[in-house]
Amino acid sequence: MRWSYKIARIAGIDVFVHATFLLLLAWVGFGGYRSGGVAGAVSGVGFILAVFLIVVLHEYGHALTARRYGIPTKDITLLPIGGVARLQQMPKEPRQELAIALAGPAVNVVLALLLYAVIAATRGAGGGPDLGAADEVSAMSGGLLSQLLRINVWLAAFNMIPAFPMDGGRVLRALLAMRSGDYAQATVRAAKVGRFFALIFGIVGIFILNAPTLVLVALFVWLGAAGEAASVSQAAVLEGIPIQQVMITDLRTLAPSDPLSRAVEYVLAGFQQDFPVVEGGAVVGVLTRSALLQALGQRPPNALVGEVMHRQFEVADPTEPVEQALARLRGCGCQSLPVVRGRQLLGLLTLDNVGEFMMIRAALEARRA
Hints:
The chain has helices at 19-68, 94-126, 133-136, 144-159, 167-180, 183-208, 212-238, 260-269, 289-296, 322-331, 351-368; strands at residues 4-10, 13-18, 73-79, 82-87, 275-279, 282-287, 336-341, 344-350. It is an alpha+beta fold and 369 residues long. Residues 131-142 have low confidence and may be disordered. The two termini are 40 Å apart. Strand 2 (13-18), helix 1 (19-68) and strand 3 form a beta-alpha-beta unit.
């Protein structure tokens, strides 16, 4: 994710923080300083960090459970609205998705029980309810441990609302898929439920509570439900289709000895944006549009392609499923994948031609219907 910075690597998973999260910390710190000086700023920032530590543990619940089923996690990113654990692929079995979705809220339930036990034990040791641990460590008006207890309960409950992209939406889809056996149809039904909740959140946030945050959550849920439905619909269309049926075969290539001006000619002629670089019949690099533009700002047009091309690049096999290659394409941030057998270039897979293939399939299906 852009504007994200790595802060740790735990259990083999990179943890990133988004720049907007740092702005949240600055805003909370400034507000705390205005109301309580340095102590207030430290207290406010410390509380937010504690909350997001809980969020990280929640996401690790998802990630480590997914690992049990052989599904790696790319990374975990902290945002002002929470955390995002990016799995390399979604589970195909509804029971697996059910376990992965429940793992996050389960972490919050366990943390809530632990906090409750600590608070109860400390109050008992203090001789009465007025000497509770939460009061002794409080840096805010309530009590830090009591607040963290309530937050864990709230996170567990809120995430179980049956609306994508929250955990409850995935639980609902898994249950529907287990009942019907149709994963795509289960997704459509769960997405409709998610949009219903988003509509309720929006109405309550605008007309009843005047709560902009709830409106933002409504927008987040609505877009998440629509995105999940579209993603699963795409996966259903592409399921079982090999790359060789979708890839571009009419394409232009470059040689390492070609000048950059030749790539410019191809771009302006409207052929393509990224170019495999071939030498001796083998793909030895890729010249992307961004690399070409950057090079043109620093080098003359007669500079050689071999000087600026990417020598480390992803490739795909023609028999590889399109859905699998598409996940790699998005994961590497690439615009295209050279399709090779051995090192011989056979074609090029791009997001654009996958989209065109899906539109053609949809038109054909509509005609048959």
